[in-house]
Every structure is written in C-alpha cells, then in structure tokens.
Design a protein that fits this description.
This protein has 153 residues and is α+β, with helices and mostly antiparallel strands. It contains six helices and four strands, in the order ααββββαααα. The protein has one domain. Helix 3 packs across helix 6. The mean pLDDT is 89.
C-alpha cells in the first residue's frame, strides 16, 4: 500500500473512531446536541468543522458545544468566527475524553463562569479563557483542528 492510501486509511479509521467514541462514551452529551441540531436544522445556516456539525444560531452569545454539535452566533465577523469554531471544537474533543463527565468537568463550570462571573471578570481584568476548561478548549481546538486562533479576544 502506498503512502497516500495509508494516510487515507488512517484518516478514515480516525473518523470512525471519533464517531464511535462520541456515540458511546459521549452519548448523553451527543443526544442532547443531536436533538438541538434537529430543532435548529430548518431555521439556521449549518456547516462542518473537522468532525463537528455547526449550527449558526440567532443568539447573542458566543458558542456552545454539545459533543460533536456546535452552536454559535452568526456574527459574520472574522477572526471572531474562526476563533469560536476552533475553541468550540476544543470542547468537542474534551467530550471525547470525558464522556458523561463532560457536564461536571466542563459544562457546568463553563456556564457558571460565563453567566455568573461576567462582572467579576470585568472588575479583575480576567479573560473568559482564564478558566481551566476554556483555556484547555483553546489549546485542544488548535491542536486537533490544526489551526491557530487569532488575537481578537
């Protein structure tokens, strides 16, 4: 088998493994994400980012990752859109690792940090990405997507 065929086989195996883990170990998170995707499907623009499905929703928030389903605002602004895709994909990869623990290790801390500590972050000059799970999502999003976030946050 030549190198190109080997690379294609490895990529196909990696994608199959990604789906298998997301829909077994990460089943609870992906079920909710999949249901939300179906609800938004007729109402929103959609796209793909690596192995994730993105729905561009009319909300004013940044983004939300539920397994391999990413929901993000449709601002149409670059580099914000690119940075958010990469960051949310990092959360997608976290779900692969954590499975049902994702809610406790990532989801709840992220939601609390986003919604209840906004004033604190402003008063203390803290970035949203200073929280461990958000910083980790940026690192893994870059690593697993092969893209770098731009300085726009």
């Amino acid at each position: 088998m030549n190198e190109a065929k080997k690379a294609k086989a490895v990529k196909g195996l990696s994608k199959a493994l990604f789906w298998l883990v997301q829909w077994t170990w990460g089943l609870p998170v992906n079920l909710i994400g999949g249901l939300m995707y179906l609800v938004f499907y007729p109402k929103c623009r959609h796209g793909r980012f690596n192995n994730a499905f993105i729905s561009y929703v009319p909300w004013k928030f940044g983004g939300l990752s539920l397994g391999q389903f990413i929901f993000m605002a449709d601002h149409g602004r670059e580099p914000w859109t690119s940075n958010t895709r990469i960051h949310e994909y990092g959360h997608t990869i976290q779900c692969l690792l954590l499975g049902p623990l994702y809610w406790f290790v990532i989801g709840v801390p992220s939601a609390v940090w986003c919604h209840l500590f906004n004033g604190y972050r402003g008063r203390h000059n803290k970035s949203y990405y200073d929280l461990y799970c958000e910083k980790w999502a940026n690192i893994w999003g870059e690593k697993w997507s092969g893209l770098k976030r731009k300085n726009d946050d």
